[in-house]
Amino acid sequence: MFNIMHISDLHFGPFFVPKVAESVLKSAAALKPDIIVASGDFSQRAKAAEFAAARKFLDKLPPVPLIVCPGNHDVPLYRVWERIFTPHALYQEHITAKLNEVYQLPHATIVSLDSTSPLRAITNGRIDQAQLDFAREAFAAAPADAVRIVVAHHHFAPAPDYERSSVMPRAKRAIDVFNDLNVELILGGHLHRAYVGNSLDLYPGKDRKHGIVIVQSGTTTSRRGRAREREKNSFNWIRVTEDSIRITHYMYFDDAGGFAPFSRHIYPRADRQYFSEPVEADIKTDLFSR
């Protein structure tokens, strides 16, 4: 049906790696995504020059729908007056004016949520009830056959290594709501290493049949990778078909001269629950074709 290139945590500023960013642009041109998701932390310290550089980079990506959300680094940390009164001003000037947004695309409805919480939890983030109501209203208007996707910077599930990865407060409440709304996919960043799993890995919840596929991207263009992706860079390539969600985790390797596939994951679509026939034989062909 369609392909998503999922990048995150660009961190324009002192930790940004230009040669890796050039490789991202080359990969995007070669893969030809239908949608690009950039899940927050465009800047390192929410400075105007950093946002301007991020905007210039985003404008070089293929001309397809670009879904974004702010990250905690897109909010001033030490400029307290700005953090209190105009926390997203520069993000809104350079990246996008809306903090919570609905994207109605062919075959998909994508809800982008601002998980930053400048006054309460600048690191761990929050999704409040008003935002859950916003998502409920957005998905209520979605076509019946649309794939339902949520994008937020902060994570709803911890990485398997559990290094500095406490989930957002009340993440389980959000997962229950997303299950009720038939959300199939959650995309995020923040952890600075990739994680691909299912909400059932974290929380059985009210719906124990299929859960929600959760895909976290590592830092795509900075030296701030953590744990198993320390000083490494990654992005995700997601292919949504009629019966499956297939994710390829790409990592940057100097000896490969750029990004290369590192791991692959495949899940049945929520309404399928299981595969009716073997899928191993077509994984390679499917992941690298449109």
Automatic annotation (TrEMBL):
Instruction: Name the protein family.
Output: Belongs to the cyclic nucleotide phosphodiesterase class-III family.
Query: What organism does the record attribute this protein to?
Result: Anatilimnocola aggregata
The protein's name is Phosphodiesterase YaeI
- List, alphabetically, the InterPro entries matched: Calcineurin-like_PHP, CNP_phosphodiesterase-III, Metallo-depent_PP-like
Domain of life from the UniProt record: Bacteria
Calcineurin-like phosphoesterase domain sequence ranges: 3-193
What keywords would UniProt list here?
Hydrolase, Iron, Metal-binding
Name the Gene Ontology molecular function terms of this record: hydrolase activity; metal ion binding
